[in-house]
Amino acid sequence: MKAVRIHSFGGPEVLQLEEVQIPKPQPDEVLVRVHAVGINPVDWKIREGHMGMGPLPQFIGSDFSGVVELTGSSVRDFRTDDAVFGTVADESGSYAEYALATVSQIARKPLSLDHVHAAALPIASLTAWQALVDHAHLQADQTVLIHGAAGGVGSFAVQFAAYKGAHIIGTASVQNHHYLRELGADEVIDYRSVHFEDVVSDVDVILDTQGGQTQERSWRVLKRGGILLSIVQPPDEQRAKDFGARAMFVRCDHRRGDQLARIADLVANGQVKVNVEKVMPLSQAREAQQMSQGGHLHGKVVLVTEVSGH
Ligand SMILES: NC(=O)c1ccc[n+]([C@@H]2O[C@H](COP(=O)([O-])OP(=O)(O)OC[C@H]3O[C@@H](n4cnc5c(N)ncnc54)[C@H](OP(=O)(O)O)[C@@H]3O)[C@@H](O)[C@H]2O)c1
Questions:
Q1: What is the predicted pLDDT for the residue at 299?
Q2: Same-domain check for residues 103 and 6
Q3: Ligand 1, closest atom to CA 45?
Q4: Ligand 1: which of 231, 251, 275 to mutate, judged by most atoms within 8 Å of the beta carbon?
Q5: Which pLDDT tens digit goes with each residue over 161-199?
Q6: pLDDT tens readout for residues 189-234
Q7: CA of 1 to the centre of ligand 1 (A)
């Protein structure tokens, strides 16, 4: 099969599309014929060695949508030819024609959702759901401030917050404001021309997708008893105490196929939209990661394999 691997850490040029053996599933894994691959910022962070320098060569990519080709000996819930989506097993990579996935990390793909849009869901939607629903327990009478609201995680966060009935304030570049309102944001702030702390106060929940100064300036807009959740930089516990607030770093738990199924239902019912900005062939993995690394996507970049028929 064709798969993208790296033999050293570095720029996009270290991504190599190679011919490799099709892997065999462990008892609790399925082998999936990959149709579409969702790109996440963590993919280029791994490529550059920011997430630790694991053994090389290394497969790349996590999010996929495809069709089960083979099941491991203990798999009962999925069968050959089932259309599934999710994240790959640790030793595998989704930038490939075939990938391995542990059953706890996948869900059935609804018929009404195509592979391209299903592949755009896993990490971004799970992270947003886990932050706002599992950890912040966001309620209808609360206000949430979402930084980077037009990004992969942010755009799902806005929609999940709207689903919960919360009041939503999102920050984004001005060209994304219309898009954010369509997703359900009540107020939008152009972070390039307005200091959000000048116009926002007393929010219950903050989702920080940026870290650095954005996180530091966020404390003073949080209500006492509010919560700041960061997905990029562990918040300072002492700062949280100083402001009478709670803080937490959220790392996406990939083993939540059950949550993926629930999110897929929301998409299938039309309550949540998946915005795909660009679809490219697997052979353009380098260009796709460069787009992600640019940091100003509104929506996801998805790669398709030849089997997908695109
Ligand atoms: N902890 C975890 O498990 C986890 C999971 C998923 C993602 N992450 C991390 O979370 C971050 C966001 O991921 P993503 O997939 O949403 O990225 P993305 O799709 O690339 O989106 C980035 C967004 O950031 C916005 N932005 C850039 N500078 C900003 C600023 N100063 N203030 C506010 N917004 C700004 C951009 O908005 P405009 O285009 O409007 O300028 C863009 O929409 C990445 O660093 C990723 O690695 C962590």
A1: 86
A2: yes
A3: 47
A4: 231
A5: 999 999 999 999 999 999 999 999 999 999 999 999 999
A6: 999 999 999 999 999 999 999 999 999 999 999 999 999 999 999 9
A7: 32
The reply to whether 287 and 183 lie within a common domain is no
Taking residues 75-91, report their average pLDDT. Answer: 97
Q: Is there a single domain that holds both residue 242 and residue 157? A: yes
Structure token digits, residue 299? 């929506």
pLDDT at 275: 96
Using CB atoms within 10 Å of the CB of residue 266, give its burial: 0 to 12 exposed, 13 to 18 middle, 19+ buried: middle
Q: Are residues 99 and 159 in the same domain?
A: no
Parent domain of 205: 124-249
Evaluate: CB of 150 within 6 angstroms of ligand 1.
yes
Whole-model pTM over 0.85: yes
> 29 near 100, Cβ under 8 Å?
yes
Nearest-atom index, ligand 1, CA of 41: 47
Last residue of a domain, one of 208, 233, 249: 249
Give the CATH number for residue 78. Answer: 3.90.180.10
Q: Does residue 126's CB lie within 6 angstroms of at least one atom of ligand 1? A: no
Residue of 43, 47, 129, 153 with the most ligand 1 atoms within 8 Å of its CB, for mutation: 153
* Alpha-carbon distances of 47 from 20, 60, 78, 183, 303, rounded to whole Å: 19, 8, 32, 32, 17
Check residues 68 and 309 and name the one with the higher pLDDT: 68
pLDDT band at 309 (very low <50, low <70, confident <90, very high): low
The average pLDDT across 23-49 equals 98
Q: What is the pLDDT of residue 308?
A: 65
Q: Say how many Å lie between the CA of residue 50 and the centre of ligand 1.
A: 16
